[in-house]
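yo, Ribonuclease P protein subunit rpr2 is done. seq:
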Amino acid sequence: MAKKKAPGVQNKPMYSRISFLYQAAAYLAAEAGRPGLGSTQTTPQAATDSDVHMEHDGHKDDTNHGGNATQPQATQALSRKLLTDLRSVTLKNQIRITPDIKRTICKYCDTLLVEGQTCTSTVENKSKGGRKPWADVLTIKCHTCGRQKRFPVNASRQKRRPFRAADQQKQDVTEEATSIDSQPRPQKTP
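structure:
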């Protein structure tokens, strides 16, 4: 008799694809932010003589034709495209992304949020004079689109509905058990 397979992850190829897209986007975003991007590699356009760039009439053209000046923007745009593809794959397959990964992606422009490079983070407390420590909010501002994401810092996350319902049922059962035990039992009289 054949052995039953152990239950595996459904849509494993989709999870692999999502992981690859995120890793590639993170790599490209890191490459875009690296200072002196074109200094380590010589591109054919950077290595050519200045007389190669000529206009159609034969005169020398003084403009830069796609050297290393636009390369960081191109890699940043490619990184955003990969994250857009990641979002579409997860939506089509109804796969949940972990909140930690979701927080590193801008909800509006799909930019990978790297602290100090593509976003800035501040902690705000808009309570009166900042007196309430539980009102701290982490604000992440995207440099690409200018929008802000806000996350509560000290507040615990609410459980998803099925887990909340299960916990509520457990509490109800324990309350009933304690209420039955706490009631005085009638004593037998002779």
